[in-house]
Automatic annotation (TrEMBL):
Taxonomy of the source species: Bacteria, Pseudomonadati, Pseudomonadota, Alphaproteobacteria, Hyphomicrobiales
Zinc finger (dksA C4-type): 101-125
Protein source organism: Methylobacterium brachythecii
Domain Zinc finger DksA/TraR C4-type: residue ranges: 96-131
Subunit structure: Interacts directly with the RNA polymerase.
Region (Disordered) location: 47-66
Biased composition annotated in UniProt, kind: Basic and acidic residues: 53-66
GO biological process: regulation of gene expression
Chief location category: cytoplasm
Gene Ontology cellular component annotations, sorted alphabetically: cytoplasm
Pfam families with a match to the protein in the record: DksA_N, zf-dskA_traR
Protein name: RNA polymerase-binding transcription factor DksA
Length: 139
């Protein structure tokens, strides 16, 4: 990929060619920043869990602490899965398939990508997917 400098105020626009170098660089930066934020939070959680080796004499306090820990670990697991989706999006940027719907091959709207940069389906395809899931879940 050609190295492109991006002004911090740059926002992708529908008036420019879809997934040009500037747009790809914008989303690459957005994904990398998101990933580093998640990793920073995870490191903070890990440090907190390691230092919180309190011995709670009260059973209610111990149960509350264990519940808090379980919730935190579940959140971190979701974020771990999210980082692999971010890595997959970064790979799609490199192979130039980023921004195109995996189902239809059509461009995913810039607004959708800006709101959910790991999106792999256009809004319409995502809605169809969710309707199918609902139908099968109701069985």
């Amino acid at each position: 990929m050609t190295k492109v400098t991006i002004d911090e105020s740059y926002t992708p626009s529908d008036t420019e060619p879809f997934m040009n170098d500037r747009q790809r660089e914008y989303f690459r930066r957005k994904l990398l920043n998101w990933k580093s934020e998640i990793l920073r939070e995870a490191q903070g959680t890990l440090s907190a869990l390691q230092s919180e080796n309190e011995n709670h004499p009260d059973l209610a306090d111990r149960a509350s602490s264990e519940t808090d820990r379980a919730i935190e670990l579940r959140a971190r697991d979701r974020q771990r899965k999210l980082t692999s989706k971010i890595d997959a999006a970064l790979s799609r940027i490199e192979d130039r398939s980023y921004g195109f719907c995996e189902e239809t091959g059509e461009p995913i709207s810039l607004k959708r990508l800006d709101a959910r940069p790991i999106a792999t389906l256009s809004l319409e395809a995502q809605e169809r997917h969710e309707r199918r899931e609902r139908v099968y879940r109701d069985d």
